[in-house]
Amino acid sequence: MHCPLVAPHVRATRWLLTVALLSSASASAQTLIDTSAAVGIQNTLNNVAAPSPVPFIQRANTVVQTVQSQQAQAAAQVTTPSSSVSSPSTATRTVTVMPLTAQQQAALTAAQASFKAGNYALARTQYEALIAQNYNNPEPHFGLAMTLLSLKDEKGATFELGQFRLLAPERFEGPYNLGVIATRAGRYADALSLYAEAAKLVPGQAGPELQVQVWNALAGEQLRKADYAGLTTTLGALQALKPDDLDIQFRLAQAQFMSNQGAQALPSLYALLQKQPARTEAIRLLADIYAAQGLPERAIRELDAGLTQVKAGRDRAALLLHKANLLALTGDTKNAVFSAQAAHLQDRSNVDAWLREGQLRLQRSDRAGALKVFQGAVQAAPRDAKVRVELASLQLALKQYPQAAQNAAVALTLRPDAATQARAQYVQGVALYQRQQYAQARTLLNSSALAVRNADVTLWLGLANYALKDYAGAAAALTESMKLNPTLTVRQNLASALLAAARYSEAEGILQGIVKDNAKNSDAWYFLGLSQRAQLREEDARKSFKVAANLGNTRAQQALVQEPGK
């Protein structure tokens, strides 16, 4: 039984940009360091991805001096943790730390020289020989660990750092470097615990730069975990170490904002802007704090004040786009359009500003204006897949099917991300369906459906299957669509597909639900009659046909005079 389907309206999906609360910044790369060259790290709240692998600390001058002083004294008794890589546990044992003899100290110096010269194989042999002579001194274990790391033997290095930690639990290099290994292995919870331990130990053991490095590593893991309260504490400690560092001051303000302490960040932000009045990310954060306090007008005034200080076109565009977002949140979409437009006039390459203006125009039902904006965006960024898909989506809504299909196809050649690719496949698939190219449409819609669960995608996939007389496939796709969003259109189309697939009782169940919800739906009454007649329940079928006929359904009128089975 072949029944006509009800085609849904094509809707332009509006992918609204959210207000960017965090400004863009990058973390500096981190490499191995030695005593004389400590490399600092920048980890900001903006860097939500995994931080760059932190560097291993090979030696801190202050620690060397402390150890050499200890070696001149008698052996010390220390209480040590278990051999676990995590922070010290309650299981402990007593280890006697043995000082190096003069001959062993000379051997240690030779091994360190081999390491410094890059002769890691020789250094490994020298350190291992020294460990065989004096296992209970931490220095050879530490040197061997650094050597094994240089030889990419992290398993061996982990063991040696564990031994070093047993012998020198008061030193920060052990937990810190184990934290580095844990970060690189993706064991972030372990890394967080180890860095926290190192941060407790490092004060008084190393200079400010190394302390900053340790605290930054801890901050990176707290950021990964979204522990903004802990991050606020850590960045406060960093600021105490480097009170004149404006980047740390800004990161602390970000952390306070993210931990719902935005008002507390205002004094330091204003102080920062007195020194760097054109710092765009700080101006935006200031506006966000006021917006979060329920003061969007104040936030907009802060952006306007910042615009008087900022001269670079790219930075002005960022502030104007931010203003557009805030205006939209207040419901002033008219001025939001003007602000977004001003943003891409300042910086033609600001794709987000183009898209935002187009989306705002769609909110104001200005499809013609939005179309011009998206076309301008494509000219400004012809290799941007998201821009192409925005244009294609609007063209689809405007029933410009050839243009929509073409732009969606181009987007698929521009290496889009997974979400953009799925959306482009959906737009191209619907456009091809409307041009009766059902086989190609089904292939594209099926690929989109496999990538993302979406009611509209599976609805159109069902329609394409139905057009190809694959009624089982149509029923399966439409069933999935109904699970995601049981609209009337989906339910009626599913009932039609089930009728065509001779699954009459299932179709009847869906149609009974439709007429219960809307007793004046003549098509649903007609299809209900068909499902009942197919089940040889002629009396029920005629009742349904009569209701449909009384509602003006001409097919139901014909069904009443038609003999069953013909």
TrEMBL record:
UniProt cross-references to InterPro entries, sorted A to Z? TPR-like_helical_dom_sf, TPR_rpt, Ycf3/AcsC/BcsC/TPR_MFPF
- Protein name in the entry: Tfp pilus assembly protein PilF
> Record keywords: Repeat included?
yes
- What top-level branch of life does the organism fall under? Bacteria
What keywords tag this UniProt record? Answer: Repeat, Signal, TPR repeat
State a single Pfam family of this protein: TPR_16
Q: Where are the TPR repeats?
A: 172-205, 351-384
Signal peptide positions on this chain = 1-29
